[in-house]
Amino acid sequence: MRIxxxxxxxxxxxxxxxxxxxxxxxxxxxxxxxxxxxxxxxxNGPNNDEEWLPKGIQNWTSAxxxxxxxxxxRVLSEIGTGENPNNSxxxxxxxxxxxxxxxxxLVKEPLLINKDYGIIHFDSPDxxxxxxxxxxxxxxxxxxxYKNIPLLIYxxxxxxxxxxxxxxxTDDKAETGKDDRVYTRDQLxxxxxxxxxxxxxxVNHWPSRSGGEKKSAPFRxxxxxxxxxxxxxxxxxxxxAKIITMGDLNDGSYNKSVKEGIGAKRKxxxxxxxxxxxxxxxxxxxxxxxxxxxxxxxxxxxIMVSETLIQKDFSSFRYWKAGIYNKPYMITKSxxxxxxxxxxxxxxxxxxxxxxxxxxxxxxxx
Length: 366
Hints:
Layout (H helix, E strand, L loop, with lengths): L1 H21 L2 E15 L22 H17 L12 E7 L2 H8 L9 E5 L9 E7 L3 E9 L3 E2 L20 E2 L4 E3 L3 E8 L2 E9 L7 H25 L5 E6 L7 H7 L1 E2 L10 E2 L1 H7 L5 E3 L2 E3 L2 E6 L11 E7 L32 E9 L1
Helix pairs in contact: 4-5
């Protein structure tokens, strides 16, 4: 009988400890990035917005603008809720934004207003008047500093023409000033406290491939180097800083701008102190995409994290996993662009020509 009692106690002990291990709880936050694709209002502003006016070539009416806001708010409210069902993203990076006003309209949409998003936005020198911005849930994130850092690039830096790609066109056309500068988006740096832990976020929208990938590559390579410089400046202040860089890079994870400019790695085990992990590189090689061009998919929209966010100790916020949000209602159902993101056309107000991306940050609750 004594042996039976000991055996029973033995199994009871492991049942209790096993249940305790399984009962671990985590605080989860979703961080997302979305190219809003031409989020313009219907008011004639000082930027080049003529095509996005009621009498412009896009026939952009108030009704269409309101539908666009509703569409974007639906997507944003749902991103990440598969693993974090009680909350939409805590942090949202965005690009192709005309001004602060359109963001104020967006966060007031019925699907978002209860989240109480704050806005960090600066006007960029981009000639089309499109900017980057960060939305954040005020109850979880407290910004302490933010600034826009200009990307200084010049036409003289251009590479040679690539006959194969020189006819490549995008909605994002750079313009040159009298000083030969190519006016593009600034990089937005935001530092703040996520539920009490300091986090640094960089929001990007790098120069387009207008004129061809090869010819325009030096501009994006310069953007990658600027991104790395920003990171290094943060590390000089705090060697243990947590950094997230995100955006529409107009380059893939395999391009020189990302691999050499930022120094991003495909695998966690390759990342050294002060290094950067890019989960979207592995996704690309598995056949995933956030956009399509000439029937070829790629991942230009990426979120990368510093080595400090991939450490195995979850007593502090760490990277958990990443995803691309591409629900059926966001996808073109038929025609030439079947399977592509459902974008805006003259006949239909879509969502975007890009799918949004996201990551989860988790922290064990003691």
